[in-house]
Each structure stands twice: as structure tokens, then as C-alpha cells.
Amino acid sequence: MDGGVQATEHSIALAHGPVSSVSALHLAGASPLATLVFGHGAGADMRHANMQAIALAFAAVGIATLRFNFPFKEAKKNRVDAKPITIGAIEAAVRFARELVDGPLFLGGHSFGGRMATHAAAERPLDVAGLILCAFPLHRPQQPAIDRAAHLDAVGAPMLFLSGTRDAMADAALLKQVVTRNGATLAWLDDGDHGYKTRKRHRARSDDIFTEMAGHAHHFVTHTLSAAAQCSPLAETATE
């Protein structure tokens, strides 16, 4: 039970990799607007407190989540999987979500999970409505660079970056440059670091950082779905 909302446990079969399946958690409130397939970071699995907090906050604004383990965490290893294995797991999770729920799908993740989601969207025909990237690790701590963003122009879906103003892995000027170049949306999280920690005396907002994230995500999802509906063939036919 997650904060009064029941999370259901699932198993996602994999075609390749060190394990044959990975665990998943589906958390949804009443009548969700969309479902977000959401991968964890390199240092913790889908059950980490931050992953749960994000899922709960998103459920409160109508965004269901399907959290899943990457194969290396399912196998209780510390070293992340090779990119093809990681992308394969993301593709399997998206496929599983399509069978599990109705409605639009979004893709994303925290840190490593979000970065790999962008690679999956750039390299595979996932057909998701958009990407929600939490604490995107643009570069290593204190080593500003944009090499990790080189593939983003191949992502054919709207992107939302949720980045803390104190995130040591996302230089503000460089992240703005990347977002502008790719026509993405950027929302700064007040006084947040890479792990979403805030300082009570420095945070200007009265809500917690996960509620802040959920508000930005809700706006992005509703705007993205509305724009897609207006561009759909049915919408065009209705206006002729």
C-alpha cells in the first residue's frame, strides 16, 4: 500500500539480458490521465523512497506510474547494464504497459533511468506521447559537458526536464542550451539537488519538491495530450 493507493506488483518478461524478467510496480489513482513508464537511477531500484514519493505525488494529480527494475538491480548487481540491455528492458516495459492499461503512455525516469529513456525513444519505435525526465544527468558532477545530450535531437516526442537548481549533474546554462536546441520544456525545482533534497531555510516554496514535480508534470501531460488531440486526423476532419 502506497499512501492509501494500492500498488500492484507485476513481472515483465525480457527477451535478452542477464535475467529473464524484471519486477514492476503499477500505481494509479482514480481515472488517470496517462501512465508514465518510469525507470530508476543507477544507485537504487524501483522501491527507493524517492521513486515511491514521485509515484505517489504523480498519482495525486492523475498520472499513473509503472516503475520497473533494470536487469542489473533485479540481479542485485551494482554495475549498470550495457545500453542495448537497458534499452531492451525499457522497450519491454512500454510494451507491458500497453497491455496493462488503456490511455496514453509517457516514458521517463530518474537520472540514469531518464537518460536511458531518451536513448530508447531515439533508437526504438516506442510511440509514446512524451518524456518526463527527472534529474537528467547531463554530465558527471562538477564536469560540465553536453556530450550526453547529443542524441536528443533524434527523440521524436515532447520532453519535460525536471531539474533541481542545485543539481551538480546539470549545469544550468548548459541544460538551458540543450533544452532550447531540442524544443523541450524545462522546469526548475526550487533548491533541489540531484537526489531531490532541499534546504528548509533556502526553499521559497511551501510545498514539498515531489508535489512541485507533480504539478509541472501534470501541466506538461495535459498540454501535450491537448496539442496531440488538436493535431489528430479526427480533429482535422471535425473542423473541415
Helix content: 25-40%
Let me know the largest β-sheet. 8 strands, mixed
List unreliable stretches of 5+ residues.
236-240
Computed over alpha carbons, the radius of gyration is: 17 Å
What fold name stands as the CATH topology? Rossmann fold
Q: Any idea of the CATH class?
A: Alpha Beta
Helix count equals 7
Helix-strand makeup class: alpha/beta
CATH architecture: 3-Layer(aba) Sandwich
3D structure, described in words:
It is a single chain. With 240 residues, this protein is α/β, with parallel strands linked by helices. It has a single domain, classed as Rossmann fold (3-Layer(aba) Sandwich). It is 36% helix and 20% strand. The chain is built from seven helices and eight strands, in the order E-E-E-H-E-H-H-E-H-E-E-H-E-H-H. The protein has an eight-stranded mixed beta sheet with strand order 1-2-4-3-5-6-7-8, with helices on both faces. Helix 1 crosses helix 6. The termini are far apart. The relative contact order is 0.13.
